[in-house]
Amino acid sequence: MAKNFGLSERHISNIVREVERWLALRVWTCDPALIRAVHLERLEHQWHEAMRGWHRSLQAQETTKVSTGSGQQKAEKTQKTRAGDVRFLDQARRTLVEIRALSGLPNGSMLELAHVDALTIEQREAQVDFFLEAQSNDVGEDTHA
User: How far is it, in rounded angstroms, from Cα 85 to Cα 57?
Assistant: First the structure.
């Protein structure tokens, strides 16, 4: 089908995914797995936005003070480093807790995830699905640019 329209299979997959998302946003009687996926995507977006805010809050703040005296203007620039706004990190952490819960991952430290043997088959599948979906979303974002 992709060749008939002169598009790649990846592009067709992205279009199908966009239509599924569109439907899930408008018709809440859809497949519960699709609703869960849309919710996960929204949570991931919240996490990314919180982390962008954190990184912005770390950037140095530059101020310019212009003074005039004796017929001349004098500009003084100062840079103030910032420690960052921890509210962004707190929001990101809370969002990760929701993502983990919705993905069926255990609550607790990331060290628990390092021990794959401690996870059930369902938890392993959820973890793999989560990372594959996140990776395919990153690829999908690149194709829209």
Answer: 6
Written as one letter, the residue type at 70 is S
Q: Tokens 């004796």 — which residue?
A: 70
- Note the maximum CA span of the chain: 78
- Convert the pLDDT of each residue in 78-105 to its tens digit: 888 888 899 999 999 999 989 988 887 7
**Cα separation of 98 and 36, whole Å?**
12
How far apart (Å, rounded) are the C-alpha atoms in residues 37 and 129? 10
User: Which residue range(s) make up the domain with 76?
Assistant: 32-144
- Evaluate whether residue 45 is within a structural domain: yes
- Give me the number of domains the chain comprises: 1
User: Taking a C-beta distance cutoff of 8 angstroms, is the pair 57, 88 a contact?
Assistant: yes
Place of tokens 């199908």: 16
User: Which residues have a Cβ under 8 Å from the Cβ of 60 and sit 6 or more positions away?
Assistant: 79, 80, 81, 82
